[in-house]
Amino acid sequence: MEPTREMQMKESQFHDSSSDNEATKPELVSHNHGTQDFQAVSPESEDNTTNIYSQGGKSFRTLGRWDTIFILFANQIGLGILSLPSTLKTLGVVPGVIALIGIGIISWYTAYELLQFYRIHPQVLNIVEMTGFVGGPWLEAVAGVMMMIQVIFVAASAIVTLSIALNTISSHAACTFVSKLGIPNAVSVLSAVMLVMIALGVSGPGKVPSLADWHREIKVVGTPSFREGLNACLKIVFAYAANLSFVGYMAEMKDPIKDFKFCLAFLEGCSILMYVVFAIILYCLGGEYTTSPILGATSPTLAKAAYGVALPAIFATGLAYGHIGAKYIFVNVMRWTGAVHEVTSNTARSWGVWVASVTGFWIVVFILSNAIPVFDSILSITSATTISWFTYGFSAVFWFNINRKSLFQDWKKSCLTVLNVLLVIMSLFMNAAGLWASITELLDLFNADDSSIRGVFSCGSNA
User: Fold this and answer.
1) Which pTM value belongs to this model?
2) How high is the pLDDT of residue 125?
């Protein structure tokens, strides 16, 4: 369907990113994408559900404002926070705090760019489908592979953390191979961090020979090597890696156009504040004995207790990203088999495809978590490979797509154009230099004389 001149004018006005009027939407956006056409409607309409989660069976668009906030916190406030105190140990307090705030603000801005693009294409289910509107089926296929790599890596990081927890709790009585997961509870990671904070404040780090004679070594400004500094920044990037899941949750919200901006502001504001406060306090309490994950900085007994409290959060991170990966496989298999109308129906085929998707996903995660059994390394490698694009690069590409006719319209647009060019360059830099830094660090750890992990699929303790 060719848009009329009036509709083109309305869409052009809507594309202007400087406008915050959330009530403005194009009256009709029709694309032949996937298996069927979708029609966007105005927010004032009683039915603003336009994707397959509200077609065929009962509506799966059930998330309200506070439901979404809770889920976003479960995705973002997880394993990443456990590595942040060690980034201050590497970078120093001042550069580390600047990096925490700066990367957080950039992640906030790029997440808002996703919302801008979603307003125009509300039929999408995830960020991968967004790339299809920009670069066609080829870019969508590449982005789909990249998304699966990222969710597999993040889920694998949860398995690695779980293996560290069990090695700590059992004093390495259990092998590093772990495959069973339980009920998630994202709040537990904050409880575990608070427990470690109290333990460090009362009894100090576990490896201190004499607490009475110990003087904390706090670096205001660190002197890391290029590789050390880059790996520290990659761990911060991992802590803000939830952008990948945002579009998927927009697709399941009752009214994402109205509510997601508030949810995003609440999430990012609290995340930045929480990360900075916890990182500073824990680093200042642990000093030169600060570890990553931070739960291992205290005494063995208290470390066991902290990891025990953190287990539900570890499960939550793995299961949340596992849900994203399995759901992506499920929806695409149903499309390929011509059964997209059964996505929201309880049929034998839909259940069979869903069970197969979940099983296959976790088999791959199990293999990867044993191939890279080191917490810091799997965080850095994940950030360097795909998080760089899903958090920064693709958002910039989407911004260029909706503002391609007004890149230098005024000084504000010119500044945003430069910023988004830098985001693409940053993503490419993280791909190249970030992978080099993270992989060489992992290989050095495998070859270290005092390392208990000698390679992939090792049963050595990674605690």
Assistant:
1) 0.75
2) 83
